């Protein structure tokens, strides 16, 4: 599949590995793909992301990702569903952090060396292929990675949607032909 990635998409994947390593994450997750995409300039995906989520919105996006890491990757929908069962995720996080330190649920320090991709990150990469095929494009670009991030659900899609970056808004910004 990686042979179908453009140079820009490959750079995002490599950048995601770098973000995971610097964060000490045990694996590369969708949030690392997003952070690497935010680092890019002069590509289709980066241009759309910069237009839809300008630099002054980035702190809120980063805070949402950090908050999700603190909750061990649980989305707000997951947290609300657990609350309906009487489970207060915030209280659990507070107790764990009180006993084990801030960010204890965010994942331990990864081992030196190669970082594997999480199941969720692999799903984003696979979805980027499906998006590419559905759009009848020949190669997987960073714009397809962005579309896949918005369509995959979870905390990254949630954080992006809070900033107005949804599959529909990205698709429209890319100038997708109108459905017939």
Structural topology:
Blueprint: H1 7-23, H2 30-39, H3 44-52, H4 58-70, H5 76-84, H6 89-100, H7 119-134, H8 142-151, H9 154-162, H10 167-173
Please provide a written account of the structure.
- The protein has 180 residues and is mostly helical.
- Helix content is 62%, strand content 0%.
- It contains 10 helices and no strands.
- The chain has helices at residues 7-23, 30-39, 44-52, 58-70, 76-84, 89-100, 119-134, 142-151, 154-162, 167-173.
- The protein starts with 6 loop residues before the first helix and ends in a 7-residue tail after the last helix.
Task: Using brief descriptors, characterize the structure shown.
single chain; 180 residues; mainly alpha; Double Clp-N motif; 10 helices; repeat; Peptidase; Clp_R_N; Clp_N_dom_sf
Just give the CATH class: Mainly Alpha
The secondary-structure element order is: HHHHHHHHHH
What count of helical segments does DSSP give?
A: 10
**Alpha carbon gyration radius:** 17 Å
Superfamily (CATH H level) name:
Clp, N-terminal domain
Q: What is the typical, i.e. mean, pLDDT?
A: 85
The CATH topology is given as Double Clp-N motif
* Count of spatially separate domains: 1
SS content category: mainly alpha
- Largest sheet properties: none
Please give the number of β-strands: 0
């Amino acid at each position: 599949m990686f042979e179908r990635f453009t140079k820009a998409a490959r750079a995002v994947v490599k950048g995601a590995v770098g973000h995971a390593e610097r964060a000490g994450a045990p694996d590369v997750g969708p949030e690392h793909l997003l952070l690497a995409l935010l680092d890019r300039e002069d590509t289709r995906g980066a241009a759309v992301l910069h237009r839809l989520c300008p630099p002054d919105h980035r702190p809120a996006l980063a805070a949402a990702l950090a908050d999700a890491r603190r909750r061990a990757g649980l989305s707000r929908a997951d947290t609300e569903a657990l609350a309906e069962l009487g489970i207060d995720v915030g209280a659990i996080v507070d107790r764990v952090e009180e006993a084990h330190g801030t960010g204890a649920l965010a994942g331990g320090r990864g081992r030196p060396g190669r970082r594997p991709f999480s199941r969720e990150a692999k799903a984003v990469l696979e979805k980027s292929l499906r998006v590419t095929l559905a759009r009848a494009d020949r190669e997987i670009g960073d714009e397809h990675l962005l579309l896949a991030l918005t369509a995959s659900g979870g905390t990254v899609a949630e954080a992006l949607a809070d900033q107005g970056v949804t599959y529909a808004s990205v698709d429209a910004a890319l100038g997708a032909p109108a459905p017939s």
